[in-house]
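Hey team,

Filing this mostly as a record. A colleague (T.K.) asked me to run one chain through the structure pipeline before their review meeting, and I want the input and output archived in the tracker in case anyone asks later how it was produced. No errors, nothing strange. Just documentation.

Input sequence:
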Amino acid sequence: MWLWVAPWARRCGSVSVWTGRRALAEFVRLPEHVAIMDEYRERGTIRSVIREYETFDAARIRRDAEAWLMSDDRREGR
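Output structure:
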């Protein structure tokens, strides 16, 4: 997981890497995660994208994540 913040733009977020969609779904359903999301739901906008890779390549994933975060696609939730 990489955390990022752009204080001048009042933006922050994270990039998470999961072993598969099932692992991600299990995390999202955790009571702790649900409680946090409910508590802070009105504090901002959530945008996400799922990309699948055949192998773990941290540098490539980070480059792809940074490109998406800096693109207009993030506004459209792609």
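Quick notes for T.K.: The beta strands are 2-6, 11-15. The mean pLDDT is 87.
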